[in-house]
Amino acid sequence: MPDPSCNPYLALAVMAAAAIDGIERKLLPPPPIQRNIYQMSVRERRKHKIRELPGTLREALEALKKDPVIREALGEHVYTHFLQAKQMEWDDYRVTVHQWELDRYLATY
What we know:
mainly alpha
């Protein structure tokens, strides 16, 4: 299940669309990994074809823009408005001075 703070309707819609896409394309899931992937080296993760998730909202939005399955699942209207809302959220976050920055740099400089 995705992050509990997400919109469950959108999350379930895109997960169902991804599942259907995988079935239609006859994709097979990889074998299960019985180890903690966070304790694996980069080389081990590459060997098992484990990719990293986007590290920031900006990276997630860039990945979303490249995904036609999600775009189709959401429909043009929802997709466009979702992207706009999340881009504004990223822009707000990006220009905000956070407490960590104050704690880290204010005393130093």
